[in-house]
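Worked example

This section walks through a single chain of length 363. The input is the sequence exactly as stored; nothing has been trimmed or padded.
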Amino acid sequence: MITSRTISRGILKAVGSLVLLSLVLFFIYKIQTVILYIAISLVLCLIANPFARFLKKKLKFSDLIASITVLLVFVLILIGFVLLFVPLIISQAYNLSLLDTNTLQNQVGIIESNIETYFNLHQIDVEKMVKESNLSSKIDFNYFTDFLNTVINTITSFGVGMASVFFITFFLLKDQRLFKEKAKMILPDQNEEKILNSIEKINELLARYLTGLLIQLLVVFILYFIVLLIFGNENALIIAFLCALLNIIPYIGPIIATVLAAILTLISNIGGHFGSEMLPNTIYIVIGFLIVQVIDNNVSQPIIFSKSVNSHPLEIFLVTLISGITFGIFGMVVAIPIYTSLKVIAKEFFPNNKIVAVLTENI
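Given that input, the structure is written out below as tokens.
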């Protein structure tokens, strides 16, 4: 028999559960930066594990020396990325400096004169309007100092973030065996084998996925580089590398890369004639990039990704599309790794479910 005390207890229990869930979600929201650092560190570990295993087995490195060596390689790669961007920035700044500033100043003067003539013809006293509007009091002169502080804070946060990621990655690489032993002690006995099998399989599939992603980016980089070289772009190597990196973002990344290549090509040809040099070169490069994307979307990407994570290309497309609609660009980037992990877990814990069996038959 249901009594008022039973009902009240049920309500209190439900309210307590909701409060606890809210507190957990709030806590996760507050530490989202730390979660992001850990996620990036886990990805770096997946990339570094094959290299670390090679150092330990073939060269007989200890866990400590192998981890330090791998991190040094990551740091050198990061420094290499930074050094790649510097020549591009200097080159584009030089191209912009070639602009005929006198012509630009004359054009601005003509526009200003035309505006003044227009207001005079309509008997509008601009000077009086400016004084009455008290425009100077509405201008926020703190904007520039705020902008400078934002830039400094961003650089500082990036530095702290990189240091945190490398610190976490170091211990994840160095103490993998220790973490596995501790996990075995914590995990419930009845599900211990399933959880460990899931983790092992996820590591294997994600390592293959990341390897496939690197191969895909390399293919796209080479094709972009060839296109830019054909049309004589001075910064072909750097622009191709930058545009290839944008391909990490499925479907949207290539579009951004094409627009970026077009803009950088226009800037690179600022000294030339617009009709005979700047515009034709830009159009040719855009067409070349579109051809590369057709090849990538229909040949290299489906083959590499479907083979690496054992999923059908249509399955990958739908998962990426749904994640993009739901969570934006970040959702598109992490869609395939998360979906693959969920498939592995589902197969391990619900092998007899018909839907799970169909989706995971190749895993």
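What to look for: DSSP finds 14 helices and no strands in the chain.
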